[in-house]
């Protein structure tokens, strides 16, 4: 039979150790309860801690996407408002150009309008070269020599960038589409007035009536030349230049044939009556002089700045040596420029519409990111936070632990005063 001997000091140590453990448990429960979290450290619940960490990581990514999307949205909003300013400036330019066609104006008054037109043209160029908060052009120009996206004589541009991820939009707009992809005339054919014309006749841009007949590859540009008949009334003939097979390098004037194969030669002219040429109904108005010409040719690509420059030149230069402007050059130039300005304005409006669509996309993406953020937060809460029932239970356990620790401390305080001598007495 063995006899175990338990010393007083050993009992004290065990008691102190137990009290310390209970106090540590109490401290841990107080920490969890005050934070409202079931899991504060990975050791509390490794699986739940990992789930919560994954949710936080995804929330950080969502927050990054939000910041990027907000920055891109701000840039597109700035670009959209800039396009609005360009549209306003173009409309003001158009109004001044209409004034320039006023028959009561003299060239001095038109020269005053030219100064205003030039100022507006310069404003539009500045608007097109605006940069975002990072110093990058809103419309992404790449002309490194002049350090401007759209210089007077350049066309070095980069179109808008595509979306790079699910929750981003492009941070630039298509400057090429907005400013550089316009067409002369009606977009298919253009009509130029002869530089030596002396009459008052001018032409509109024409309306395409037969798209299949607009191809001038075989003939090249067509010339509408005016003459007079035996009675002195104006007539017109449509011709083109063709190389003489017998004499290479020499060109012959060949009559153009209509859809029925008949040459269009010495046809009676009537002001305002449509002329059918190359699948287009062309209206020439006014009184031409013998020898006056109009040229029909394929449309060419031009920038909005080319349109504005030609309009300014038309108002400035279409004046006779005697100072008068009563001839077809001014009217034709204004009519042509007005039509091309409208086309250019429509292209700017198209890109502005694209900007609006991008802003709508950004709004939808922002709502989706908000929902994803709420979803990830719910997953994190489910993994590491107390629910209502769990919180009540945790507070109950905390109260019980406080009572147990308090009782242990009071009991120990009383017992530690006792000794063997107290027991012998």
Layout of SSEs?
Elements: H1 8-35, H2 46-100, H3 107-128, H4 175-180, E1 182-183, E2 189-193, E3 202-203, E4 207-208, E5 222-228, E6 234-243, E7 251-255, E8 267-268, E9 274-277, E10 280-285, E11 293-298, E12 301-302, H5 304-317, H6 328-384, H7 388-415, H8 420-424
Antiparallel strand pairs: 1-12, 2-11, 3-10, 4-10, 5-6, 5-11, 6-7, 6-8, 9-10
Helix pairs in contact: 1-7, 2-3, 2-6, 3-5, 5-6
Overview of this structure, please?
With 425 residues, this protein is an alpha+beta fold. It folds into 2 domains: 233 residues, f41 fragment of flagellin, N-terminal domain; 115 residues, no CATH class. It is built from 8 helices and 12 strands. Strands 2, 5, 6, 7, 8 and 11 form a 6-stranded antiparallel β-sheet that branches. Strands 3, 4, 9 and 10 form a 4-stranded antiparallel β-sheet that branches. Strand 6 and strand 7 form a beta hairpin. Helix 1 runs antiparallel to helix 7, helix 2 packs antiparallel against helix 3 and helix 3 runs antiparallel to helix 5. About 4% of the residues have low confidence. This is Flagellar hook-associated protein FlgL. It is found in: Bacterial flagellum; Secreted.
Q: In short, what is this structure?
A:
The protein is α+β, with helices and mostly antiparallel strands and 425 residues long.
Keywords for this structure?
425 residues, alpha+beta, f41 fragment of flagellin, N-terminal domain, six-stranded antiparallel beta sheet, four-stranded antiparallel beta sheet, 12 strands, Flagellin_N, cell projection, cilium
